[in-house]
Design goal:
about 1000 residues; alpha+beta; Immunoglobulin-like; 5 domains; five-stranded mixed beta sheet; 18 helices; C2 domain-containing protein; transmembrane helix; repeat
Length: about 1000
């Protein structure tokens, strides 16, 4: 019982801002109802206040710590009907359990109030602090305390409990009639689709039958004892969890697909060799078992002390050319001159056609004793289990695999996680009491100082400030008020080092170290970081060199960009408190590849390829196992990711494994890129499987080369289409990116810094995910100058502008009467526009509505991939490729040409980015009409229909007048966040993600 009740959740309802008046008198009397895990709490009512201040702390019991991440905390605001006409809904806030933090890490977070329905009129924000506390009472004193509480509580506290119950019933009797009906209706719609859980994944989680058993057993024991009836009734009120409920929640709600339903089942022969039993132990050497199946011969580990191996071997059935299996137990005996011989104690043979089948979730096959056939030493036994299974077998990951080279760690399937990244903001304010110069050296009249901040390998500096010789505080205490922004990765570096340096003599005035553990975390701009003074330490002769005034905080309201902006896969804020519930689940089945080209030689005689695939979405990286020496490998591995934004990109790359073998110097080789594909989630229909084969094309110094094809199955599952539609109206990035934006140059520096950190951390994993793999997946060279990319972006712009040229030629053709019927129709249309101007906009939107419906039949049914023709890989010349693969600085002589050449390339890289951005804006407009994003085009279709009806009713002159006044409104009446049309436009797909 102590384990169940050891965690409590605390919700501090602080205040609300800018509520919608709902009492008929221009104000509202608001109170909050908080629901969590079948428990309900209510705050007091604040009389006629649109900015109420509660500051009430509500306590909830967490029944199951393991399933807390799947629970939803819901806060509903209502207008008290005692102070108004009726109990009106003021808004709600839903927080996923995965966003709860431990006590000590909480902070005040303002959540925007959500609507209960599409037609609700809601505005304002709700300030909350949500945290939990783990309480572990002493084991010896727990039972006496409980018994004493059971004896003392009934007689001592009947009145307070009755009074509380009476107060609650008095308040709730009137509320339940008007509130609980709409509340329950809303809950019925929302409860069946709980948010996915972040921790368990379908491919990682064990069978889902055990967690409910662990939850139910304490409850059954509790009900048998008959203690704590109040807590028991609260637990029983929870919805019944079926055997697959944790798995369904992690998969995004009511999804019923299997773990391996996107890939083909690959048959594997599994052989588990457990141990041997000998009649006579005459042999003292190490003993092992040897398996012979077809042309494969494998040995278990040698055991000298005992005869237990307990090893599993998996053999690909399609790669075998035999139907028999022989298992022998052998002893290695040493002779003179360090020579050894092998002595066989017996053999067991199996007919593979008689092997039983096993498909999870069937229980594992029990091993059995088999007698070894031998004339020399009869009577010996070996314990073996042999079955035919698939890659979904639990033993597959730890088994010796025939197609992956055995037990090599570098060839196994692995899942990697990018480190959690934060922005660290250091605000340098001023310095005081600086000890400039030393006693032996004369002081400089006007020294120039700057402050340098260092976090790990990152170094940023402030501007220079001159220190005058006068006695005024402004001259003797230099002031900067500059921000230095770093990228910090968990686990953090131990110290942030601040150094004050003198430019005139090149010496260090002093430095200070700030422990990263002492730096506070901030999640928005509503709370300012506290300023702190630090003493500056000089050399040994000068322990005190002055002091410095700074502000330091970890910014949790930003999303740390570590990918190219046009292929980003995650837009969540760094702070856990700002986490939102997933809106869907992305499932990817990596089936196989065909017609791969050899990338290296084997034994110096023939070409070969050891291929594997890496898929990246959000912070999760997956790497399939390496299939050795095959040009048509079949992986058939399936993975899943939680989706928090539909306008993100999945990146999949294929590589040749060069790290599992050491070179002559004893160092691992490098993995060779085979090709890469990208899939934008917004171009996928929900709950539909896309099974396609994509070409793998890679740019090499010798030109573009097609390396083969890869077969991928993709499914984007979402239980609520309304949530997907609402995502198009939300800002792409968190709020801090718009309230306190970072400059473009600063963003580029921080992005490449984050890329280097992610690359370094993943390279330190075991086995390592190579630096060349991470850089290729993250497009770390997207800023490098390339004549090919510049041509591609230029012709994208030209292609967009050609539509305007076509329209101009069409108008000129009408003007010159090239086609008289068309010219006459235009004259009639012109007369209609002049005589009936109010029909212009309805006609235009109705025409767009009809055209979009007609063109929806011709939209692509296959997800878009990178286009070699669009990337101009076929028309690139050798000089341009040489220039593209030339590094910084260039190796071309002479020195003057190198400097000018690098300068030209840097400027051309900026122009290249500008051309791409311009082209992307125009392509987003085209995406509305070509149905690249079905949901965005569907929204626009509905908008066109509604706009045509609205503009039919609203006079055009009135619309122009109202729109003009709205456009030129005072900044006081404008919002800091982007508008809904701008958010919608920025989420439209462009062709940037199809450029190689």
């Amino acid at each position: 019982m102590a384990e169940i009740c050891s965690r409590k959740l605390f919700v501090e309802v602080c205040n609300a801002k800018n509520l919608m008046p709902k009492d008929g008198q221009g104000t509202a009397s608001a109170y909050a109802i908080v629901d969590f895990d079948g428990q309900r709490r209510r705050t007091k009512t604040k009389f006629r206040d649109l900015n109420p201040q509660w500051d009430e702390l509500l306590e909830f019991l967490v029944h199951d710590k393991d399933s807390m991440a799947t629970e939803i905390l819901e806060i509903n605001l209502y207008n008290d009907k005692k102070f108004g006409k009726r109990s009106n809904f003021l808004g709600k806030v839903k927080i996923a359990g995965s966003g709860f933090v431990k006590s000590g890490s909480e902070s005040l977070v303002y959540f925007p109030l959500e609507k209960r329905s599409v037609f609700s009129q809601i505005k304002g924000e709700l300030g909350l602090k949500v945290y939990y506390i783990d309480e572990d009472p002493p084991a010896e004193k727990a039972e006496p305390v409980k018994e004493a509480a059971a004896e003392e509580k009934p007689p001592e506290n009947p009145k307070p409990e009755d009074e509380k119950n009476e107060e609650k019933t008095d308040e709730k009797k009137e509320e339940e009639k008007t509130e609980e009906k709409p509340n329950e209706a809303a809950k019925v719609e929302e409860k069946p689709n709980p948010p996915p859980e972040e921790k368990p994944k379908p491919e990682e989680a064990p069978p889902a039958a055990s967690p409910p058993a662990e939850v139910e057993n304490p409850l059954l024991a509790q009900s048998d004892k008959g203690k704590h009836s109040k807590e028991k009734t609260e637990i029983i009120k929870r919805p019944n969890l079926g055997a697959s409920d944790p798995e369904l929640r992690s998969m995004g709600g009511d999804r019923s697909h299997g773990t391996y339903d996107l890939v083909a089942r690959m048959p594997f022969y599994y052989i588990r060799v457990v141990k041997a039993k000998l009649v006579k132990s005459e042999h003292s050497g190490p003993m092992y078992a040897k398996l012979v199946i077809g042309t494969n011969t494998v040995k278990t580990k040698s055991q000298s002390d005992n005869k237990d191996w307990d090893q599993v071997f998996a053999f690909d059935k399609e790669g075998l050319n035999s139907s028999s299996l022989e298992i022998s137990v052998c002893v290695e005996e040493k002779k003179e001159k360090d020579q050894s011989t092998e002595s066989c104690l017996g053999t067991v043979s199996f007919d593979l056609q008689e092997v039983p089948n096993r498909v999870p979730p069937d229980s594992p096959l029990a091993p059995q004793w088999y007698t070894l056939e031998s004339e020399a030493s009869p009577g010996n036994d070996v314990m073996i289990a042999v079955w035919l299974g698939t890659q979904a077998d639990e033993a597959f990951q730890e088994a010796w695999q025939s197609d992956s080279g055995g037990l090599i760690p570098e060839t196994r399937a692995k899942i990697y996680l990018s480190p959690k990244l934060w922005y660290l903001r250091l605000t340098v304010i001023q310095t005081q009491d600086l000890q400039l110069g030393s006693g032996s050296e004369p002081k400089v009249k006007r020294p120039e100082l700057y402050v340098k901040g260092q976090l790990g390998a990152q170094v940023f500096k402030t501007s220079r400030t001159s220190v005058g010789s006068s006695s005024s505080s402004s001259s003797t205490n230099p002031t900067w008020n500059e921000d230095l922004v770093f990228v910090a990765a968990e686990p953090f570096e131990p110290f942030l080092i601040i150094t004050v340096e003198d430019v005139t003599n090149g010496e260090t005035v002093g430095n200070a170290k700030i422990q990263m553990a002492s730096i506070e975390k901030r999640i928005d701009d509503r709370t300012d970081a506290k300023s702190r003074w630090f003493n500056l330490a000089g050399d040994e002769n000068k322990p005190y060199a002055g002091r410095i005034h700074v502000k330091v905080c970890l910014e949790g309201g930003y999303h740390v960009l570590d990918e190219a902006s046009h292929v980003t896969s995650d837009v969540r804020a760094a702070a856990k408190q700002l986490a939102k519930a997933p809106i869907g689940l992305l499932e990817v089945g990596i089936r196989g590849a065909t017609n791969l080209l050899p990338v290296k030689t084997k034994d110096g005689t023939r070409g070969t390829t050891d291929a594997y695939v890496v898929a990246k979405y959000g912070p999760k990286w997956v790497r399939t196992r390496t299939i050795l020496d095959r040009f048509n490998p079949r992986w058939n591995e399936q993975y899943s990711w939680d989706v928090f934004d539909p306008c993100t990109v999945l990146t999949i790359g294929a590589f040749d494994n060069g790290r599992y073998k050491l070179d002559e110097a004893g160092k691992p080789g490098k993995d060779v890129r085979i090709g890469k594909i990208r899939v934008r989630l917004s171009t996928l229909d929900t709950n539909r499987v896309y099974l396609n084969t994509y070409s793998l094309t890679v740019i090499l110094p010798g030109g573009a080369k097609k390396m083969g094809e890869v077969e991928i199955a993709v499914r984007f599952c979402s239980s609520s289409w309304l949530t997907l539609i609402q995502a198009y109206a939300c800002p792409m990035l968190p709020r801090m990116h718009y309230v306190r934006p970072l400059g473009p140059a600063q963003q580029d520096i921080l992005r490449h810094t984050a890329m280097r950190i992610v690359t370094t951390r993943l390279a330190r994993s075991e086995p390592a995910l190579g630096q060349e793999v991470v850089q290729y997946m993250l497009d770390s060279d997207t800023h490098v100058w390339s004549m090919r990319k510049s041509k591609a972006n230029w012709f994208r712009v030209v292609g967009c502008l050609s539509r305007a040229a076509t329209l101009a030629r069409w108008i000129d053709g009408i003007r010159t009467w090239l086609h008289p019927p068309t010219t006459i129709m235009v004259h009639v249309l012109l007369a209609a526009v002049v005589l009936c101007p109010h029909l212009v906009l309805p006609t235009v939107f109705m025409y767009a509505f009809m055209i979009l419906l007609l063109r929806s039949r011709y939209r692509h049914r296959v997800p878009h991939n990178m286009d070699p023709r669009l990337s101009y890989v076929d028309v690139v010349g050798p000089d341009e490729l040489d220039e593209e693969f030339d590094g910084f600085p260039t190796t071309k002589p002479p020195e003057v040409v190198r400097v000018r050449y690098d300068r030209l390339r840097a400027l051309a890289g900026r122009a290249q980015t500008l051309l791409g951005d311009v082209a992307a804006q125009v392509e987003r407009l085209e995406a509305l009409y070509n149905w690249r994003d079905p949901r965005a085009s569907g929204i626009f279709v509905v908008f066109c229909l509604l706009a045509s009806l609205v503009f039919y009713v609203v006079p055009f002159k009135a619309f122009v007048l109202v729109w003009g006044f709205y456009y030129f409104r005072h900044p006081r009446f404008r919002d800091d966040m982007p508008s809904v049309p701008l958010n919608f436009f920025r989420r439209l797909p462009s062709l940037s993600d199809q450029i190689l």
